[in-house]
Prior knowledge:
Distance between the termini: 25 Å
Number of strands: 9
Order of helices and strands: EHEEEEHEEEE
Low-confidence stretches: none
Amino acid sequence: MKIEIKEAALEELSKVQFSDSEGIRILAEFVGTCSIATDIQLHIEEKQADDEVITESGINFFVPEKSLESLPSKIFLDFKPGFGYKISSAEETFGYNFKLKSRNEK
C-alpha cells in the first residue's frame, strides 16, 4: 500500500511529536448500512505484530492486515483547517473530518 501525504496534511503532521516507536495507525473496516462505506480511524500508537509499516515523508503509518483488505493500494491523506483530515483514493473519497486521536484517546 502507498500513502501520498498532501502538503497541508504534512504541515499539520509536522506539529505532532512522535516517539521513535510511534506512528499513525490507520484502522479501516467495511460497514454496511443502507450503503457500503468504509469506517476509518487515525490513532497515534506503537506498531503491533500484524501491522504493515509504511513510511512516508519520515512518518510511520501502521496498517493492520485486516485494514489493508478495506483500502485501495494507494490512498491520499490531506488536511483542511476546521475540517480535519481527508482520506481518498483516485476513485473515491472515504471521508472528511477525520481527527488524529492521541495516545490516550480511543
